[in-house]
Design the sequence.
């Protein structure tokens, strides 16, 4: 086969021939200074688009504008969280697009326009993100606020936002001249786009007249990624809400096609019913999702991170020197295995100093660059168990005293309505104060966001993750750490089941029957292996850092991820179930 033929056959070139992929996500982390995301889902969406731009894909994205952002977190002395809005100035950063479309929400006409942000790829290709906006004169004052708050308001507000995204988004794309070949729903918030696609196909005919052929035509265009391993995490609305906000015809359609579950409109079921390809976000999450939705075929494509976005400047420089094409071709990060350990150490120390500086500026605590530093930062949801680390405070204090000292950096926001999550933050802050000593420093950093996430994953020595199994669908912060040469100590959940090689890329906290057992496993690893290696066997520590980059950085990136979407979901040669069950025994080692 000639080089030219190979190119013609590759999914990348098919991308330009076979039509546009429209990627829908309620949140997208576009830039650090745009508060249009809340956490992992939005960061993943942004990283996906950055890699799609690098690969010059024929792809456009749709989201909401979120004029008031998610929220900024404030923590008082006692560890109580309060929140404030994050207003920003979209018109200063984005181009306003000409077309407007209308949809009926709750019997009222709502006009929608789009502001555009262009994502520039490493080779110069751009991907437009259309951010839907209802802040318009012609809208009722209440409707003008519908694109203000990400995950704000009550259930009614949420459903109206999902109507704007799912029903308004496809209409805006048409008005802009796109005819998407593929719709990708990043989580169920965008599921109503299937209804919009059906309405478009019926061209004015009533939804009541839709046939199995019409449903199949919609299915043939739709791809769905589910991110939630617990039923309660899936978006649900009452029949009354659905009828009132979406109208009786749409509600009946959704009910007739299996979108109601336990008497509630369930966006996950809507998306499952109308997608030809469905996936979870790590191998284990695929398995958990298949158990949750046994009547559907659900594959798995493991998440990643955008390599150049999350790598520290010093590491980037080192990669440029050793693997000059790593940005275009992330696989070449595999050759980090040849880099001198001392050089990796020096690059890491620069990032560690930057982190220590930032901590001092934010909180006044002066940390020591020669002391082993652990990072724990993520949404303060209870299943993440931020306090597992403190399960046996005496042992923790002793461990720090006897093994060379320990610094721990925490960060994370609780959703404003999540009281148990807020209680966890308070508990960690109280314990941090109680246990503070010359050899144990614990700092809780306010307002976890993109910048803090980057500083922490680049600058700490170990990334700690203690979720309750199997609640972590994937997790991506440990991937950011890995590409910066930072190993993980984690519960075997989500991506870590795939990324973990004991003592090579990090360590696994053993599965034990209760929290006490798991905390004990965590302490044992620190006492017996991790702290002695860090303080006394520098060569071995540097080899671990290097393996984290070479083995995990080269794979857990969104470039590999999106290539898998191309091959299996967007433009498959044929539709196959890519979850090979034979893989699974290997996952449990
Ligand atoms: C990477 C990132 C996340 C996702 O991390 P998890 O490992 O999934 O918890 C969340 N928030 C921010 C700000 C991030 O940078």
Sequence:
């Amino acid at each position: 086969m000639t080089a030219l033929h190979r190119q013609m056959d590759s999914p990348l070139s098919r991308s330009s021939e076979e039509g546009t992929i429209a990627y829908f996500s309620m949140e997208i982390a576009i830039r650090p200074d745009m508060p249009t995301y809340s956490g992992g889902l939005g960061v993943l969406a942004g990283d996906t688009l950055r890699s799609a731009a690098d690969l010059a894909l024929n792809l456009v994205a749709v989201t909401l504008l979120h004029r008031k952002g998610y929220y900024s977190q404030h923590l008082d002395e006692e560890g109580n969280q309060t929140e404030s809005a994050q207003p920003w100035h979209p018109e200063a950063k984005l181009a306003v697009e000409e077309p407007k479309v209308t949809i009926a929400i709750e019997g009222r006409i709502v006009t929608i326009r789009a502001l555009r942000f262009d994502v520039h790829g490493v080779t110069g290709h751009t991907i437009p993100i259309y951010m839907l906006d209802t802040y318009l004169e012609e809208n009722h004052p209440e409707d003008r606020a519908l694109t203000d708050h990400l995950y704000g308001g009550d259930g009614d507000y949420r459903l109206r936002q999902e109507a704007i995204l799912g029903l308004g988004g496809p209409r805006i794309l048409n008005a802009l001249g796109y005819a998407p070949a593929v719709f990708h729903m990043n989580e169920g918030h965008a599921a109503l786009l299937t209804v919009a696609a059906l309405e478009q196909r019926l061209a004015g005919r009533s939804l009541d007249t839709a046939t199995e052929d019409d449903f199949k035509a919609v299915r043939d265009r739709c791809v769905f990624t589910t991110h939630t391993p617990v039923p309660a995490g899936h978006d649900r609305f009452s029949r009354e809400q659905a009828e009132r906000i979406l109208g009786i015809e749409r509600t009946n359609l959704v009910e007739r096609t299996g979108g109601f579950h336990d008497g509630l409109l369930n966006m996950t079921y809507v998306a499952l019913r109308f997608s030809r390809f469905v996936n979870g976000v790590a191998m284990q999450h695929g398995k958990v999702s298949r158990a949750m939705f046994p009547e559907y075929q659900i594959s798995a494509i493991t998440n990643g991170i955008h390599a150049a976005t999350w790598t520290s400047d010093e590491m980037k420089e080192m990669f440029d020197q050793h693997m000059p094409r790593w940005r275009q071709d992330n696989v070449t990060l595999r050759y980090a295995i040849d880099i001198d350990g001392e050089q990796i150490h020096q690059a890491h120390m620069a990032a560690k100093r930057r982190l220590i500086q930032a901590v001092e500026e934010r909180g006044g605590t002066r940390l020591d660059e020669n002391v082993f530093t652990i990072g724990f930062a993520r949404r303060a949801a209870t299943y993440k168990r931020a306090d597992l680390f403190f399960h046996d405070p005496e042992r923790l204090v002793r461990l720090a005293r006897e093994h060379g000292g320990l610094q721990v950096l925490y960060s994370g926001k609780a959703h404003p309505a999540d009281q148990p999550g807020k209680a966890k933050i308070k508990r960690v802050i109280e314990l941090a104060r109680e246990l503070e000593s010359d050899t144990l420093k614990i700092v809780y950093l306010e307002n976890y966001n993109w910048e803090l996430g980057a500083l922490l994953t680049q600058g700490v020595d170990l990334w700690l993750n203690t979720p309750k199994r199997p609640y972590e669908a994937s997790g991506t912060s440990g991937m950011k750490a890995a590409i910066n040469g930072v190993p993980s100590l984690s519960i075997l959940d989500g991506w870590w089941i795939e990324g973990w090689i004991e003592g090579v890329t990090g360590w696994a906290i053993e599965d034990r029957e209760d929290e006490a057992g798991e905390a004990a496993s965590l302490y044992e690893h620190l006492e017996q292996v991790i702290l002695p290696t860090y303080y006394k066997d520098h060569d071995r520590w540097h080899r671990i850092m290097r393996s984290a980059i070479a083995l995990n950085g080269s794979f857990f990136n969104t470039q590999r991820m999106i290539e898998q979407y191309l091959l299996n979901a967007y433009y498959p040669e044929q539709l196959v179930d890519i979850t090979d069950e034979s893989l699974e025994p290997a996952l449990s080692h």
Observations:
- The radius of gyration is 24 Å.
- The pocket of pyridoxal-5'-phosphate is lined by residues 39-40, 43, 378, 448-450, 453, 475-477, 480 (CB under 6 Å).
